[in-house]
C-alpha cells in the first residue's frame, strides 16, 4: 500500500466534494499515475491542440496540451487565468493545472541537443453526457421543449457570468458546451478566451481562429468585442430551435431560420404545454435572430437576454389546474412570430 499515493489521490477527492475549494497545482507524476500514463484507453476526446483523458473512478478530466512548442506561453497563462476566474454552475469546474518543463535529448539535424519539453495540463470536472452537438437533433424526436429551454437559458446564464467577469470566450459552439447527468449545460474550452481589463470593451488581434458557422463577420477584421460571443450564442439558439446544425453564410439566413422555426413548431402545438412554452419558443427565436445582426451594436447584451428569458419563465398555472390553452390562442402566438418573419424577409430583400 502506498500512503503517499493515496494522499495524492485524496487531493482530487477533496476538490470534488468541496465546491468551495480553490484549484490546485498537481504534479505531473500524479496526473501520469491517475491516467495510467495517458493511456489511449482513457481518452475521451481530442483535437488539434489537446487530448482529454478521463480519470478512472474519479469524475475528473485531464486535458493534455499537444504540440506545446507551437503554443505561446502567454496563451496557456491566459487560459489558466480565465479558468481561475470562472466559477459558475453553467461553466465546467476548473480543478487545477500543471506546468512543468523537462529537459530531453533530441535529434536536431543529426545532432543530439538538449531541449525543453513543456508539460501543460488542465484538470476539470468530468461532465458525463458529452457535448451539445451530439444532442442537437430534430425536436420532435429529441429532447422535449422544457429541456431545450433549460439548456438555452443555462448557456445564457453562463455567458452572462463570463462577461460580468470581463471574460470573452471567443469559441462558443455546441462542441464546447457539455451536458451533465441532468442535462445542465456547462461552457468549456477557454483556449481562445481573453480576459479584458475592467472597462475595456474591445481589442484587436492579427491571429484569427475560426469555427465555421459560429463566428461573426467582424472577427475577419480582427475586431474583438463581447458581441462576438453574442453572435455565436445566436447561432447556437437557432440550432437548438431548429434541431439541426446550420451555417449562416448569407444575409437571408436569419429569415430562413425563422421560417423553419415556425414550420417546425406549427406541427407540434400539442407538444407544447400551455402558452408559457409557446411564448418561450417565440422569445428565444426573437433573441436568437437579434444576436445574429450583422451590426454588432444592434445585438443585445447578456443582461438584456437574461431579463427577457426571465419574463417567460413565469409558471403556467393553466397546467396546474387542468386548463389547457386553446389551439386558437396557440395559433395566435405563432401567427405573431409569422408576422415577424415576414417583416424580416421584407428587410432582407430591400
TrEMBL record:
Entry annotated with the keyword Nucleotide-binding: yes
Sites where the protein binds ATP: 64
Keyword entries, A-Z: ATP-binding, Kinase, Nucleotide-binding, Serine/threonine-protein kinase, Transferase
GO MF annotations, alphabetized: ATP binding; protein serine/threonine kinase activity
Bilayer-crossing regions: none
InterPro entries referenced in this protein's UniProt entry, alphabetically: Kinase-like_dom_sf, Prot_kinase_dom, Protein_kinase_ATP_BS, Ser/Thr_kinase_AS
Domain of life where this protein originates: Eukaryota
UniProt domain Protein kinase: residue ranges: 38-314
Keyword Aminoacyl-tRNA synthetase in record: no
Family, as annotated: Belongs to the protein kinase superfamily.
Name used for this protein in its record: Protein kinase domain-containing protein
Amino acid at each position: 500500500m502506498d500512503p503517499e499515493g493515496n494522499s495524492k489521490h485524496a487531493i482530487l477527492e477533496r476538490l470534488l466534494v468541496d465546491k468551495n475549494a480553490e484549484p490546485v497545482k498537481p504534479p505531473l507524476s500524479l496526473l501520469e499515475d491517475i491516467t495510467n500514463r495517458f493511456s489511449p484507453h482513457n481518452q475521451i476526446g481530442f483535437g488539434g491542440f489537446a487530448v482529454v483523458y478521463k480519470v478512472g473512478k474519479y469524475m475528473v478530466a485531464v486535458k493534455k496540451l499537444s504540440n506545446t512548442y507551437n503554443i505561446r506561453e502567454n496563451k496557456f497563462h491566459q487560459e489558466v487565468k480565465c479558468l481561475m476566474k470562472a466559477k459558475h454552475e453553467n461553466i465546467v469546474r476548473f480543478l487545477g493545472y500543471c506546468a512543468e518543463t523537462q529537459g530531453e535529448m533530441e535529434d536536431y539535424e543529426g545532432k543530439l541537443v538538449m531541449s525543453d519539453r513543456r508539460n501543460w495540463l488542465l484538470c476539470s470536472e468530468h461532465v458525463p453526457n458529452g457535448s451539445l452537438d451530439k444532442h442537437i437533433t430534430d425536436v420532435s424526436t429529441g429532447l422535449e421543449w422544457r429541456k431545450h429551454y433549460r439548456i438555452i437559458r443555462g448557456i445564457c446564464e453562463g455567458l452572462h457570468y463570463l462577461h460580468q467577469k470581463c471574460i470573452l470566450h471567443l469559441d462558443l459552439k455546441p462542441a464546447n458546451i457539455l451536458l451533465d447527468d441532468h442535462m445542465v449545460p456547462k461552457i468549456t474550452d477557454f483556449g481562445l478566451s481573453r480576459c479584458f481589463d475592467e472597462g475595456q470593451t474591445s481589442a484587436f488581434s492579427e491571429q484569427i481562429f475560426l469555427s465555421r458557422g459560429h463566428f461573426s463577420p467582424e472577427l475577419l477584421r480582427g475586431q474583438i468585442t463581447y458581441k462576438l460571443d453574442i453572435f455565436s450564442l445566436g447561432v447556437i439558439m437557432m440550432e437548438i430551435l431548429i434541431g439541426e446544425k446550420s451555417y449562416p453564410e448569407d444575409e437571408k439566413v436569419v429569415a430562413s431560420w425563422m421560417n423553419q422555426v415556425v414550420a417546425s413548431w406549427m406541427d407540434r402545438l400539442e407538444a407544447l404545454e400551455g402558452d408559457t412554452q409557446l411564448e418561450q419558443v417565440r422569445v428565444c427565436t426573437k433573441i436568437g435572430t437579434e444576436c445574429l445582426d450583422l451590426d454588432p451594436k444592434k445585438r443585445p447584451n447578456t443582461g438584456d437576454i437574461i431579463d427577457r428569458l426571465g419574463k417567460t419563465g413565469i409558471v403556467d398555472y393553466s397546467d396546474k389546474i387542468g386548463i389547457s390553452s386553446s389551439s386558437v390562442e396557440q395559433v395566435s402566438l405563432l401567427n405573431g412570430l409569422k408576422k415577424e418573419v415576414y417583416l424580416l424577409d421584407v428587410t432582407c430583400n430591400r
